Amino acid sequence: MGGPSLVQTASSDTPRVPMRTCVGCREREPRSLLVRVVLRDGRVVVDPRAAEPGRGAWLHPDGACLGLAVKRRAFARALRAEHADASGLSEDDLRLR
Fold it and tell me: Distance between CA atoms of 20 and 6, rounded to whole angstroms?
């Protein structure tokens, strides 16, 4: 009964790092390692400043995660849209953030 607690509290001097989940591979990473995408006129586009209004989704800047997200139809689900056309999105677009 007197053992260590299973819940760890964050130290006040430890900076909090915003975490996001990649819609492709579903791995959690710091926000700084992912690219935000948004829906504009039915098309998925990169939000390089991560400041566009509306719902966004996060993705690793590589083709494997992009392919997984398209295959799983994850963009429409994450962006809460009936259709999300990601056909114009390329790996190069994701790297130009």
Answer: 24
